[in-house]
Automatic annotation (TrEMBL):
<feature type="binding site">
    <location>
        <position position="132"/>
    </location>
    <ligand>
        <name>substrate</name>
    </ligand>
</feature>
<dbReference type="InterPro" id="IPR017853">
    <property type="entry name" value="GH"/>
</dbReference>
<dbReference type="GO" id="GO:0016985">
    <property type="term" value="F:mannan endo-1,4-beta-mannosidase activity"/>
</dbReference>
<keyword id="KW-0964">Secreted</keyword>
<feature type="site" description="Plays an important role in maintaining the position of the catalytic nucleophile">
    <location>
        <position position="194"/>
    </location>
</feature>
<dbReference type="Pfam" id="PF02156">
    <property type="entry name" value="Glyco_hydro_26"/>
</dbReference>
<dbReference type="InterPro" id="IPR000805">
    <property type="entry name" value="Glyco_hydro_26"/>
</dbReference>
<keyword id="KW-0378">Hydrolase</keyword>
<feature type="domain" description="GH26">
    <location>
        <begin position="34"/>
        <end position="368"/>
    </location>
</feature>
<protein>
    <recommendedName>
        <fullName>Mannan endo-1,4-beta-mannosidase</fullName>
        <ecNumber>3.2.1.78</ecNumber>
    </recommendedName>
</protein>
<dbReference type="InterPro" id="IPR016714">
    <property type="entry name" value="MANB/E"/>
</dbReference>
<feature type="binding site">
    <location>
        <position position="266"/>
    </location>
    <ligand>
        <name>substrate</name>
    </ligand>
</feature>
<feature type="active site" description="Proton donor">
    <location>
        <position position="195"/>
    </location>
</feature>
<keyword id="KW-0326">Glycosidase</keyword>
<dbReference type="GO" id="GO:0005576">
    <property type="term" value="C:extracellular region"/>
</dbReference>
<dbReference type="InterPro" id="IPR022790">
    <property type="entry name" value="GH26_dom"/>
</dbReference>
<keyword id="KW-0119">Carbohydrate metabolism</keyword>
Length: 382
């Protein structure tokens, strides 16, 4: 019947509009660049294919077969040496940008970070940025050097606040100067003030109230987006281990200030803790999946790993069960920083074969599969 038919088509077109905009409705920056908006929907889309595997500082340095360090080699990453492909998500840290330092806190030149971000972006990969800033009230103190109520002292004192804005100006300059070869600004995931359920950083749970943390977060994001006009960020909220949904959300600044829901969790004391680690990671993934589905936001394990990979089948026996059918957009393992501090396989590492099995399982997406997902553009044709 014509009436029913036209009602139906009206309903359908409404639904199509909703669906089309639905992928971006939950994104916080309405003025985000087209590539940033596409990345946001791309991260949700690719989660149906597998979990993007990433590593911190993967392109900047790593380990040789004898565990000596390589630093700054072009086109190299330990994951590529082992698997033939770079990780499809690369993490970087901007710690010490606030000091106008040439290198970040782990000795990587900011110029190199900028280049690696561009190269990874042009390969279709994803870039995520954490920040371990020194204490803004006293730059001689590191991110781990806990002052009493730093955040309160920044928010409540105009001079401190103005000084902190100068630091945010430096971040904004960095973000705005990340350009591709066409001169367009490159989108990045920005993951500030992480692991705040713990108290090891000056922004941690014991050093500010939930309200202060939220205010500080909102101030940072508003300042970058509204004052500095940075429109290339997806913002990731990233707790450490948490007990339940209430604990996860205790310091959540709100759906209008967060694009990606995440948490960090490290596997410590293996093998005694193996099954507890898997169960815990699955439980926490379940919490952020529920929240992500409700809010239309992508969700991710923003840091994880087993230091020194002491279990040869860690990838298929520990990580794979966590990732399988998880709906996670990505998982990032930490850096191959030192012979006693590494999280990804390198040439000759005991877990290299097992890593390849995980690669073949189809549960993770590395460079090639992510490139074919076209995360910064329209969905790839079937
Ligand atoms: C920690 C360690 C440190 C490093 C810091 C920031 O987990 O890797 O050595 O300085 O992250 O990258």
């Amino acid at each position: 019947m014509p009436l029913t038919k036209s009602l139906l088509s009206l309903f359908l077109s409404f639904e199509i509009i909703l669906l089309a905009s639905g992928f971006s409705f939950a994104q916080i920056d309405k003025n985000a660049t087209p590539a940033t908006k596409n990345l946001y929907s791309g991260l949700k889309r690719s989660a149906a294919k597998g979990v993007i595997l990433g590593q911190q500082d993967a392109l900047a340095y790593g380990l040789n077969a004898d565990k000596s360090r390589w630093i700054g080699d072009e086109g190299r990453s330990d994951v590529k040496t082992v698997s033939g492909e770079h990780p499809a998500l690369i993490g970087y840290d901007l710690g010490h940008i606030e000091l106008d330092s040439v290198n970040n806190l782990d000795g990587v030149p900011f110029e190199r970070i900028r280049e690696d971000i561009r190269k990874n972006y042009e390969r279709g990969g994803v870039n995520t940025i954490s920040w371990h800033p020194n204490n803004p009230l006293d730059f001689s103190k590191t991110a781990w050097d806990k002052e009493e109520f730093t955040i309160r002292k920044i928010l409540s004192d105009q001079t401190n606040k103005k000084n902190f804005e100068k630091t945010l100006d430096k971040l904004a300059t960095f973000f705005l100067n990340l350009k591709d070869s066409k001169g367009d600004v490159i989108p990045v995931i920005f993951r500030p003030y992480h692991e705040h359920t713990g108290s090891w950083f000056w922004w941690g749970a014991d050093h500010c109230t939930p309200e202060e943390y939220k205010q500080f977060w909102k101030f940072t994001i508003d300042y970058l987006q509204k004052t500095k006009k940075v429109h290339s960020l997806l913002t990731a909220y990233s707790t450490d281990n948490f007990k339940n949904k209430e604990h996860y959300l205790e310091r959540y600044p709100g759906d209008n200030f967060v694009d990606i829901l995440g948490f960090d969790t490290y596997h410590r004391n293996p093998p005694a803790s193996d099954s507890a680690f898997i169960a815990n990671a699955k439980r926490m993934t379940g919490t952020i999946r529920d929240l992500g589905k409700t809010n239309g936001k992508p969700f991710a394990i923003t840091e994880t790993g087993l230091e020194q990979l002491t279990e040869p089948t860690w990838w298929t026996h520990i990580l794979q069960p966590i990732l399988e059918n998880s709906g996670l957009s990505y998982v990032l393992v930490w850096r191959n920083g030192r012979p006693d501090h590494y999280y990804a396989p390198f040439e000759g590492n005991d877990t290299a074969e097992d890593f390849k099995k995980l690669q073949q399982s189809g549960n993770i997406l590395l460079e090639k599969k992510v490139a074919s997902e076209n995360l910064y553009g329209k969905p790839a044709r079937k």
